[in-house]
Amino acid sequence: MKFKLNRSFYLHSGYASLEADPEFGLEVFGTPAGSVPVIGVGFAGRRQKPDWTYRFKSEEARAAYIAKYKAKLEGIAEYKLKQAVERKEIDNLLSVGDILECSWGYDQTNIDYYEVVKVLPKSVVILEIAQRKQMTGYESGSCWPLPGQYVGKPRTVRVKGESVKISSYSHAYKVKKNADGTYPEAHWTSYH
Asked: In 10 A of CB 148, how many CB atoms?
């Protein structure tokens, strides 16, 4: 049977609870007021190990440190909330007709193009499209997408902003058109 440590393992029997805030899982323990030395131990979240254990010069220094620690936890919580809201807002920035480029490969660079044919709340339906290739060197060259020339079967994929996950090793990103309305070239290599 494995021994599992909990918060009480890190606390001296003479420590008192100095601060508690269940919203952050904050618990601060330490020596009672008027005791020497002035010690504090702080926990946050669901962690069982203390975030800090310090000896302070005075009780005022300990109180100031606890206030600073609590403010830091509040700032982290606000940041996480802000990030969650931003992620929710940018779930799907793709629209029908957008072209996605997927670059992948080991020892070579393969380029695949996809066209968005249907937009759903958190996902899109994509079809692989053909590409125009031009050799520029030995087993290497440039390629451009050919919208509307479908070569694959439709598949539904989750969207994160302007990108989709194609497989465990590749993602496809939205291709931005050039100023003249053409698509930029991509470079490919094939050594095998």
From this structure: 10
Residue 82, SS3 per DSSP = helix
pTM for this model (two decimals): 0.57
Same domain as 112, residue 81: no
In this structure, is residue 72 part of a structural domain?
yes
Last-in-domain residue among 88, 107, 128: 88
Residue 176 sits in which domain range?
A: 99-189
User: Locate tokens 């939205």: which residue?
Assistant: 174
pLDDT in tens, 143-167: 999 999 999 899 999 888 888 999 9
Domain end residue (candidates: 29, 55, 88): 88
Q: Are 112 and 99 in contact (CB under 8 A)?
A: no
- The single-letter DSSP state of residue 31 is P
Distance CA 95, CA 82 (A): 25
User: Would you state the torsion angle of the CA atoms of residues 186, 177, 158, 106, taken in this order, to the nearest 10 degrees?
Assistant: 10
Q: Could you identify the residue written with the tokens 């070579």?
A: 108
How do strand 186-189 and strand 163-167 relate by DSSP bridges?
Answer: unpaired
Q: Which residue has the tokens 């669901």?
A: 46
